[in-house]
What does this fold into?
Amino acid sequence: MGQDAWLRSSEANIQLTGSAQVNKVRNNYVLSGTLQAPRGTYRLQVGPVTREFVVSEGTVRYLGTPDLNAELDISARHVVHPLPGTGDNKDIIVIAHIQGTLLVPKLTLESDQGAMSQTELISYLMFNKPSFQLGSGETALMGNVLASAFAGELERTFVSDLGVPLDYFEIRPGDPNNPFSGAQVAAGWAIGGKTFLVLNAGFCSPNQSNQSARLANTLGASLQFRFSPEWRTEASVEPVRSCGIASITQPPVSRQVGFDLFWERRY
It folds into this structure.
């Protein structure tokens, strides 16, 4: 690899050095070998803010598959300067470990000052102070970030670790204090080369004070068909229902049906 070989994405800009082997299997080029990641940057989106980590070391091991997938083991660091009056007299180095694969990456955080929870590290990254010093608005904002991160980890575990045969899986958390209230789950499958089916479900808690409360389930579906790279259609049917007591005591009597035609142009 020359000096101009970089692994780039919307979050990462990492230099790759070393040697790799390139082969051609039928019409596919495959790459195998372990490359070093001596330097670069990684941008982590934490709620409304973005923090830049500096890559210190790592490896990228290509698996020799047609999709050019590779195993990641990269470490990057970000220095947090605690705000005055927080009781922290020195900077905190947050270390991001980027593991998993290029197709399904996994991110974990740790500190150079010993054991520190992910919640505490996110608090320092977002607000430069510990979680117990956050205001009510800051606590709610961090709760939304943690709920989204938890949903992302569930998605990765469900599809990658458990090997569930889905082409698309997404969890959209609702209330951070009650993960089920207002949550949305969607799963999709490709049917042939032009059709894609997505099923979605919403969950509502009828009475959060009652621990034995039942979860109401609302189902919807959408079918997408692509005529060409520029044109596609989507038909969907979903219940007209929202979370709350009224949505449980009154049965759903109507559903909304939609049909859309999309034109996309890339430059």
